[in-house]
Write a structure and sequence with these properties.
2 domains; TetR_C_Firmicutes; repressor; HTH_TetR; Homeodomain-like_sf; DNA-binding
C-alpha cells in the first residue's frame, strides 16, 4: 500500500471513529487530521470536504458491485441484489453513521455517479424490456434501492441478503 493510500485509509477510519463519538458537523479538519496522524495539507491534497471521504468509501463499494457484474456474461437481477445487500451489510457501521449524521444523500449521490455503468449493466444482461425508459428506470431503481438499504439498516439488517433480494425483486418485476 502506498503512502497516499495509507493516508486516505487513516483519514477515513479516523473520520468514522470520530463520528461514533460526536456529531459529524462538529468534527473539525484539524481534529480529523490530528487523529489520523497526517497534516491538513494531506487532507486537502486528497479531499475538499469531510463528505468527500464518505462519498469515496461509498463509491468504492458501488464500483466493486458494478465491476463484478460487468465481467459476467449472464446474470439475474437477484444476483445483483444479493451482492448489493451483502456488500452493504459488511458496511453496516458506515451506513448507520450516515443515517445518524443525516448524510444519506451521499448514498444516493454515489449511485448517481455510477448511473451510466448501472444502465450499461442492465443493457448487457437484458434486464430492460423497453429501452426508451432505461435511464428513468435505472434512476428510479437506484433511488428505491438506497431507501430500502437505509430502512434495512435502521432495522438492524435482520433479514438475510437473499431475503432482501427476493423482496426487492418482487417490487421490480423484472
Amino acid at each position: 500500500m502506498s503512502l497516499h493510500e495509507y493516508a486516505k485509509e487513516c483519514l477515513a477510519e479516523s473520520l468514522l471513529e470520530l463520528m461514533e463519538q460526536k456529531s459529524f458537523h462538529s468534527i473539525s479538519i484539524t481534529e480529523l487530521t490530528k487523529k489520523a496522524g497526517f497534516s491538513r495539507m494531506t487532507f486537502y491534497r486528497n479531499y475538499g470536504t469531510k463528505e468527500a471521504i464518505l462519498l469515496e468509501l461509498l463509491q468504492e463499494k458501488t464500483s466493486q458491485i458494478l465491476a463484478f457484474f460487468q465481467t459476467k456474461q449472464e446474470t439475474r437481477v437477484s444476483d445483483f441484489l444479493i451482492l448489493f445487500f451483502k456488500t452493504f451489510r459488511a458496511e453496516k457501521r458506515l451506513i448507520l453513521l450516515l443515517i445518524q449524521a443525516n448524510l444519506t444523500h451521499l448514498l444516493h449521490e454515489s449511485f448517481q455517479r455510477n448511473a451510466e455503468a448501472l444502465i450499461q449493466m442492465y443493457q448487457q444482461h437484458g434486464w430492460f424490456k423497453n429501452e426508451q425508459v432505461e435511464t428513468y428506470k435505472v434512476h428510479f431503481i437506484a433511488g428505491g434501492l438506497i431507501e430500502v438499504l437505509i430502512k434495512w439498516a435502521e432495522n438492524d439488517m435482520q433479514e438475510t441478503n437473499e431475503g432482501m433480494a427476493q423482496t426487492v425483486s418482487t417490487y421490480l418485476s423484472l
